[in-house]
C-alpha cells in the first residue's frame, strides 16, 4: 500500500500555540512537517490534495482543492515537488507567513500554490495558484477552481450564506436541505440582477468554511454550494476560455479560505478587514444617517405635492427627521425632468418644495434611479452611445421601469449623471439621495464599440468607480450630503460600499430578511456605518420595528396620513401612531446603530431563539426572536460586572445576571428585548 505523505501548512493568526511562523520541523511522524500556528491549517498530501482543520480539528477530508479545468476534464492531481516557507510583512496587512508549494501533473502541467496568512486576520488564508504548461501540447482551458472542500457532516445539518445576487430575492442565509444546490454567481442572474459580495459560507454547529475572492475590483466568479451525502461542498470558480500553449502560464485571482466556529459574521469581518487595508472600506456615516426616516412611497407614483406637504407635520410629530420624495416626480428615467403636473413651475416649484420640508423641521431626500434610460427619453434617443450592449449587441433591460442599462465605465455616462447629482443637491436643495434599482448593483460585460473598452469586463469593474464619482460629486456640493443606495432585493456589491453613506434592507420580503441582512451589513461595514431597516410596512405584520431596532438599524416608515382610503394598509391609524411613537422614542433614547454589533456571540442558524446583541457604553442590548418561546436564554458577552436586566420596551425588571450566572428564563411571542446594565 502506498504511503501518504502529508505536508502540514499551519497558517493563521493570534493565539498560536504551535511552532513559530516560518520554522519547519518534523511533527509527530517522520513524514509530517509543520509551520506557523493552528488557527487554520491546510494539510497537503503527496497528490497536493488538501484538508482544512480548525483549531487542530479536521473539518474536511482530503479534497482536490485546486484544479485547472479543461474542455475534456480537469487537472486536479499533482505530485508534490517541494515547498518554501518564509515570514512576510505587508505594509498594510502586517506580519504573516507565506508558503509556496510546487507540484507536477502527469501531463506536464506544474502547479504553484501561494498561501499567505496574516496575524491580524486569524482563520483566513489568501491563495493564488499558477498553472504552467511544461508539456509540448496546447491545452484548451475552460476555467479554474480554488477552495473546493467538503465540510464533514455532523448532527444538526448545515446553513449557508451567499453574497451573490438572485433574481427571486431569496434569503441570504438559508438552511441546506438534502437537495440544496446554489451556483452563487457574481455575474448576472438576469438582465438587471447581478454583482454581490464575493463570499459564500457553509457551516454546521461549531465549524464553518467560507470562500471568496479578494481582488480590488469586482470579478465575475461563482461560489457554488451544494449539500452532499457526507456533508456540504463549497468552492470558488472562474470561467476562462483560453488556449494555454507550451511555456505559457495561467494565474488565478486572489481567493481566500476562512475557517471559523460560527456563522458567516466572522468570515465577513475578516474579508472586510483585509479589504480595508487596501482602502476599500465603508465610510464613516454622517450624523444625519442615523436619523429616522419617513418616505412618501406610501402614496406611490400617483402622489400629489399637497399630500406630501400635508403629511409633514405628522412626520415631525411622530419623531422622524427625514422626508424622502420617492418615484413619480420625474417625466421618465433618463432625462429626469420634473413632472409638470406636479411641479408646473418647474425648478422653482421644486426649490420651494424642499424649502417647505426644511420649514417643517425635516431633511429633504430625493429618490433617483441613474444608469437607466427609458425608450421614450431624450437621453435614449440622442445618446445611444451610452447604452450597455452585450456580446450580441443586445441592450440590457431594466425590468421594473421598462428601461435600458447604460454603461457605467463610459465617461460621458458618468459625466451626465454627475451633473444631475450636483443639480439635485446644489440647485434643488436636497440633503440626500435615495438611489434605487436592482440594475445599480452590477452589470454585464459591455461590448458597445463606441466605448472602446480594452476589455468588456471594464463595465463590470466600472460600477464601483461610477458610484465613487457620484459620491464625490454629492459631497463636494454639500459636505454633509447623504448617499443611500438601495439595490432592490439584491445582495450588496461590496466594491460599491465605500461610496455609500447608508445601506437599507433593500425591499425586504420578511422580518427575517431585515435581521439577516442587518447582521451581514454590520459585518461588512463595521462600526460607524448606517444600515436602515427599510419601510417597516415591509416587515412581518407591517409593524415589526423590533427587527430593525434589535439589529441596530435606522427606523423607517412610509405611512400615509390622514387615512383617506378605508383599506389603505399604509395609513397611520391612532393605534399605529401610538406604537410608532413608542418605537421611535426608544430608538432615539438608545441609538443602537452607534453601538458595536456583536455578531460573533450568536450563531444565527443554530442558536435558538435567534439572538442579536449590541454593546454601547458598557451596556449590552439583547434582542431575541421566535414565533413563541418559553425557556432559558444565555446572555453571552457579559463582562466582569453584575448586571441589572430590563425589558426596555415595557420597562419591566428581569432580574440580575453576571458572566457565571448568565441564563434567564423568558416567555415571549415574536420578540423580546433585554438590556443588561452594569450595577455600580
Provide a descriptive summary of the structure in words:
There is one protein chain. By secondary structure, this protein is of the alpha+beta class. It is 18% helix and 35% strand. It contains 9 helices and 41 strands. The strands form 8 sheets. Strands 9, 10, 11, 12, 14, 15, 19, 20, 23 and 24 form a 10-stranded antiparallel β-sheet that branches. Strands 2-3-1-4-5-6 form a 6-stranded mixed β-sheet, with no helix packed on it. The radius of gyration is 27 Å and the shape is globular. The chain starts with 5 loop residues before the first strand and ends with a strand.
Summarize the structure.
With 680 residues, the chain is of the alpha+beta class.
Q: Number of DSSP strands?
A: 41
> pLDDT below 50 for ≥5 consecutive residues: which ranges?
12-37
| Number of continuous helical runs | 9
Content of β-strand = 25-35%
Shape: globular
Mean pLDDT: 93
Distance between the termini: 68 Å
Largest pleated sheet: 10 strands, antiparallel
State the helicity in percent bands: 10-25%
Rg of Cα set: 27 Å
Structural class: alpha+beta
Amino acid at each position: 500500500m502506498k504511503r501518504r505523505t502529508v505536508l502540514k501548512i499551519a497558517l493563521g493568526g493570534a493565539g498560536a500555540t504551535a511552532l513559530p511562523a516560518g520554522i519547519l520541523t518534523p511533527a509527530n511522524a517522520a513524514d509530517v512537517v509543520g509551520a506557523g500556528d493552528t488557527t487554520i491549517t491546510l494539510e497537503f498530501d503527496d497528490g497536493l490534495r488538501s484538508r482544512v482543520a480548525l483549531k487542530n480539528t479536521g473539518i474536511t477530508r482530503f479534497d482536490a482543492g485546486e484544479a485547472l479545468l479543461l474542455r475534456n476534464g480537469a487537472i486536479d492531481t499533482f505530485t508534490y515537488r517541494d515547498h518554501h516557507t518564509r515570514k512576510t510583512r505587508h505594509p498594510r496587512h502586517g506580519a504573516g507567513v507565506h508558503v509556496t508549494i510546487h507540484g507536477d501533473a502527469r501531463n506536464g502541467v506544474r502547479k504553484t500554490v501561494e498561501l499567505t496568512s496574516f496575524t491580524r486576520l486569524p482563520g483566513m488564508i489568501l491563495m493564488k495558484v499558477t498553472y504552467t504548461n511544461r508539456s509540448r501540447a496546447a491545452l484548451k482551458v475552460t476555467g479554474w477552481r480554488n477552495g473546493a472542500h467538503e465540510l464533514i457532516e455532523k448532527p444538526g445539518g448545515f446553513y449557508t450564506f451567499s453574497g451573490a445576487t438572485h433574481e427571486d430575492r431569496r434569503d441570504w442565509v438559508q438552511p441546506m436541505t438534502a437537495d440544496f444546490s446554489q451556483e452563487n454567481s457574481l455575474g448576472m442572474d438576469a438582465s438587471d440582477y447581478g454583482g454581490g459580495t464575493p463570499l459564500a459560507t457553509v457551516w454546521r454547529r461549531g465549524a464553518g468554511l467560507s470562500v471568496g475572492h479578494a481582488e480590488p475590483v469586482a470579478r465575475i466568479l461563482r461560489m457554488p454550494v451544494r449539500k452532499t451525502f457526507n456533508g456540504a461542498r463549497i468552492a470558488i470558480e472562474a470561467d476562462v476560455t483560453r488556449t494555454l500553449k507550451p511555456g505559457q502560464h495561467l494565474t488565478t485571482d486572489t481567493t481566500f479560505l476562512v475557517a471559523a466556529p460560527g456563522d458567516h459574521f466572522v468570515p465577513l469581518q475578516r474579508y472586510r478587514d483585509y479589504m480595508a487595508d487596501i482602502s476599500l472600506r465603508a465610510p464613516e456615516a454622517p450624523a444625519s444617517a442615523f436619523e429616522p426616516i419617513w418616505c412618501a412611497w406610501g402614496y406611490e407614483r400617483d402622489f400629489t405635492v399637497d399630500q406630501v406637504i400635508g403629511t409633514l407635520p405628522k412626520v415631525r410629530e411622530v419623531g422622524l427627521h427625514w422626508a424622502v420624495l420617492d418615484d413619480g416626480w420625474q417625466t421618465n428615467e433618463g432625462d429626469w425632468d420634473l413632472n409638470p403636473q406636479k411641479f408646473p413651475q418647474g425648478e422653482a416649484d421644486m426649490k420651494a418644495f424642499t424649502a417647505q420640508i426644511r420649514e417643517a423641521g425635516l431633511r429633504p431626500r430625493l429618490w433617483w434611479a441613474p444608469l437607466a434610460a427609458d425608450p421614450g427619453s431624450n437621453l435614449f434617443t440622442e445618446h445611444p452611445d451610452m447604452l450597455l450592449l452585450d456580446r450580441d449587441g443586445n441592450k440590457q433591460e431594466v425590468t421594473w421601469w421598462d428601461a435600458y442599462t447604460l454603461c457605467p465605465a463610459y465617461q460621458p455616462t458618468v459625466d451626465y449623471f454627475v451633473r444631475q447629482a450636483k443639480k439635485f443637491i446644489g440647485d434643488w436643495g436636497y440633503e440626500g439621495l435615495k438611489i434605487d434599482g436592482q440594475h445599480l448593483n452590477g452589470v454585464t460585460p459591455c461590448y458597445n464599440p463606441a466605448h472602446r473598452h480594452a476589455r468588456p469586463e471594464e463595465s463590470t469593474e466600472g460600477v464601483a468607480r461610477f458610484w465613487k464619482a457620484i459620491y464625490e460629486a454629492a459631497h463636494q456640493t454639500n459636505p454633509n450630503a447623504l448617499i443611500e443606495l438601495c439595490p432592490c432585493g439584491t445582495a450588496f456589491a461590496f466594491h460599491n460600499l465605500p461610496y455609500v453613506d447608508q445601506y437599507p434592507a433593500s425591499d425586504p420580503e420578511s422580518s427575517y430578511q431585515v435581521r439577516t441582512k442587518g447582521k451581514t451589513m454590520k459585518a461588512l461595514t463595521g462600526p460607524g456605518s448606517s444600515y436602515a431597516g427599510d419601510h417597516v410596512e415591509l416587515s412581518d405584520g407591517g409593524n415589526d420595528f423590533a427587527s430593525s431596532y434589535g439589529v441596530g438599524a435606522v427606523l423607517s416608515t412610509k405611512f400615509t396620513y390622514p387615512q383617506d382610503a378605508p383599506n389603505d394598509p399604509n395609513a397611520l391609524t391612532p393605534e399605529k401612531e401610538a406604537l410608532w411613537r413608542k418605537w421611535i422614542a426608544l430608538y432615539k433614547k438608545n441609538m443602537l446603530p452607534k453601538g458595536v454589533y456583536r455578531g460573533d456571540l450568536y450563531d444565527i442558524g443554530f442558536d435558538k431563539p435567534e439572538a442579536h446583541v449590541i454593546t454601547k457604553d458598557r451596556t449590552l442590548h439583547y434582542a431575541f426572536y421566535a414565533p413563541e418561546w418559553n425557556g432559558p436564554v444565555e446572555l453571552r458577552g457579559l463582562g466582569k460586572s453584575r448586571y441589572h436586566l430590563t425589558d426596555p420596551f415595557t420597562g419591566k425588571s428581569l432580574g440580575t445576571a453576571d458572566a457565571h450566572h448568565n441564563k434567564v428564563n423568558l416567555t415571549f411571542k415574536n420578540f423580546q428585548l433585554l438590556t443588561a446594565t452594569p450595577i455600580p
